[in-house]
Write a structure and sequence with these properties.
With 460 residues, this protein is of the alpha/beta class. 44% of the residues lie in helices and 17% in strands. It folds into three domains: 100 residues, 2-Layer Sandwich (Gyrase A, domain 2); 142 residues, Up-down Bundle (Four Helix Bundle (Hemerythrin (Met), subunit A)), CATH 1.20.120.430; 162 residues, 3-Layer(aba) Sandwich (Rossmann fold). The strands form two sheets. Strands 8-9-7-10-11-13-12 form a seven-stranded mixed sheet, sandwiched between helices. Its cofactor is K(+).
């Protein structure tokens, strides 16, 4: 069993590779003045910075634990900005645990989740948006998301934010300078084109917000629930969308007694689809658990696909399901099994209450033959506002969107300020700057940093 070092040692260590067997396993260490550390674990060898050293890794008695490569990165030219050592040995979990134990014996402690990246942020090796993109790159669920995460990691998003902040500072300087000369303030601001600068800032911010919104879609994806009466074809539609038999399909009504969740990728966007176990009252203990999970999935959904048998219409079961859907949840009515009715696939927009389900549109399709599935997939992307991957797009998070929206509100309020409200104008500009700077971490509460980095893996 690993004996942990519970002290708050400035030197941290962790296994940086994934759990399981592999050809190579990596231990990462970060701290100050790590050359003596390297010498003790190698039996007196002194590594050169940024040069691979092939060596045995020794225990306290001088016996070899493993052999492999030692890489030494001297501060500040390292990921964390501190001295960093990587021990690259064989990828078995036992030998990696033995190596990690040796690091603890030499004075290191086990790193907290995300602590390496947090140190990189605190040492100005990257800003907060870039730090978050490290986790986003690791967690990327599509090639598009991975490409966007790399752009954010390389600073594409941060550059937009820094540009906004610089322009806000310039405008603030103009406004606040005039407060010292009240008799000349109006002429001074007009000559400096303060209103024009503010208008251009609003356009610039709107553009960044739109791009960030697309990046957030690519990162977060969308949650879709399949709802409808038993045996209406929900499981068949899930299987058709997933391209595999992930849900049981039978002629027995109510076969699905628990939620079945599957993720597909459409144009790089992750779509999380949940086949619900029905939304109704029941005394069956097992079924009740499934229904509770279904209700939770519905509450978190962006879109509900409401499957209705057109021959039966809105029966009592369907009415009860619709009653349990949130009023603001976007609905798409689905008529499945068109192959049995001899109908054509197609889309019909809601007109004057023509769709009694409360849906915005109706799509006719066949999960069995695949007719209409491409139409449904494109409709889902349209529903979330996805415009397609474009050059320069970057990954963004919900907190980034909220910060940009807060800045947008402050600029809108600033534009409403009259000539005799310069102090109020200056305050709105200051708050807009603070909101933007929260994205890159220039103004960020410590508790938020704790939340962000706690979601990283231990070795990162």
């Amino acid at each position: 069993m690993l004996s942990t070092n519970t002290s708050k040692s400035p030197t941290i260590a962790a296994i940086a590779t994934a759990t399981g067997r592999g050809g190579v396993g990596v231990i990462r260490i970060s701290g100050k003045d790590l050359l003596p550390f390297a010498q003790q674990i190698t039996g007196g060898k002194t590594p050169k910075p940024r040069t691979a050293l092939y060596t045995d890794f020794l225990d306290q008695n001088g016996n070899a634990i493993d052999n492999g490569l030692l890489l030494y990165f001297a501060a500040p030219a390292s990921f964390t900005g501190e001295d960093v050592i990587e021990l690259q040995g064989h990828g078995g979990q036992i030998v990696l645990q033995m190596l990690l134990q040796r690091c603890l014996e030499l004075g290191a402690r086990i790193a907290e989740a995300g602590e390496f990246t947090k140190r990189a942020f605190l040492n100005n090796k990257l800003d907060l948006a870039q730090a978050e993109s490290v986790a986003d790159l690791i967690d990327a669920s599509s090639q598009s998301a991975a490409r966007m995460a790399v752009r954010s990691l390389k600073g594409a998003f941060s550059q937009h934010i820094h540009s906004l902040v610089e322009d806000l500072i310039t405008l603030r300087m103009l406004v606040e300078a005039t407060l010292d000369f009240p008799e000349e303030e109006i002429d001074f601001l007009e000559e400096a084109d303060a209103k024009g600068k503010l208008a251009r800032l609003q356009v610039q911010l709107s553009t960044v917000l739109q791009q960030a919104g697309q990046g957030a879609i690519l990162r977060e994806g969308m949650n879709v629930v399949l709802v409808g009466a038993p045996n209406v074809g929900k499981s068949s539609l899930l299987n058709a969308l997933a391209g595999d038999d992930v849900a049981i399909v039978t002629d027995i009504a109510g076969t699905t007694r628990d939620t079945v969740r599957e993720q597909i990728t459409l144009d790089g966007v992750p779509i999380h689809i949940t086949d619900t176990a029905g939304l109704r009252q029941t005394d069956d203990v097992v079924e009740k658990i499934g229904i509770e999970r279904s209700e939770k999935a519905v509450q978190n959904a962006d879109v509900a696909l409401v499957l209705i048998d057109p021959d039966e219409g809105l029966n009592d079961t369907t009415h009860e399901i619709l009653f349990r859907l949130p009023e603001n949840l976007k609905r798409i009515e689905i008529h499945n099994k068109i192959d049995l009715r001899g109908e054509q696939a197609g889309l019909q927009n809601e007109v004057s209450g023509s769709l009694k389900s409360g849906a915005d549109m109706l799509i006719k399709l066949s999960a069995k033959t695949g007719e209409g599935l491409d139409l449904l997939k494109q409709t889902l992307l349209d529903a979330i506002g996805w415009q397609g991957e474009s050059e320069g797009l970057f990954l963004a998070r919900t907190r980034h969107i909220h910060a940009l929206q807060a800045a947008q509100v402050e600029l809108e309020n600033a534009a409403l300020c009259g000539n005799n409200q310069l102090e109020l104008l200056a305050e709105h500009l200051r708050l807009a700057q603070v909101a933007c700077s929260e994205i890159t971490g220039e103004f960020t509460a410590d508790d938020l940093l704790g939340v962000i980095f706690s979601r990283f893996c231990i070795g990162k």
